[in-house]
Amino acid sequence: MSLTRSVWLFLAPVVLFGLQACATKPLPLSQEAFSSAMAVSGVKVDVLVGEAKLDEAVGLLAKMAEDNPAQKEPWVRMARIHFEAENYGNAIVAADEALQRDSTDMTAKGLRAVSGLRVATQSLAELRDDTNLKGSARADALSLAKVLRETLGEDVLVPPVSAEAKRREEELEVRAKPRRKVRRAPVAVAPSPATRSPTPLPVDGDPFSVLK
């Protein structure tokens, strides 16, 4: 057996397997076809999310993302589903995938940012009572607060209540308190004097006539 034939017999199964893989893997859809398919999948995803079947919804979107690796929409939707389910770690991963395909997508940026903030807040709260990490946790918290101030354009994240607003709040609290009803003592009414019948006058000058 010649060397060339031996090499061909060795490579033939590999080539055949590669051709079969290329034949079974669907080609990415055109933009128009993908938009239509994504709309149909979006309806199915909404139904699955409404039925609390989040794993199936994410699986459907993951298949769309696998078949269309250049498209960001499945990843953005996955990030939103994870975010609403409070799976912030998975939301960050999905948002990163979307931003790798479109670095200007504001929805993905927002989901990643808020998810990161909530993870950071939860982590710092868990480390608050750890004496070994208290120093570094405080530094991280200060750094996070600085970034938030710069992002929001505010020197103070939670501005103090103004004197006028505080006065109005106190007035509302006073008005909201139930007023006690003051019971007045009943006023004594003097009984009306009994009506007396008129005294009969003497008849013809006889003083004893009134006794008759």
UniProtKB/TrEMBL annotation:
Residues 164-176 have a biased composition (Basic and acidic residues). Residues 164-212 are annotated as: Disordered. InterPro entries: TPR-like_helical_dom_sf (IPR011990). Residues 185-198 have a biased composition (Low complexity). It comes from the Bacteria. This is Tetratricopeptide repeat protein. It comes from Denitromonas ohlonensis.
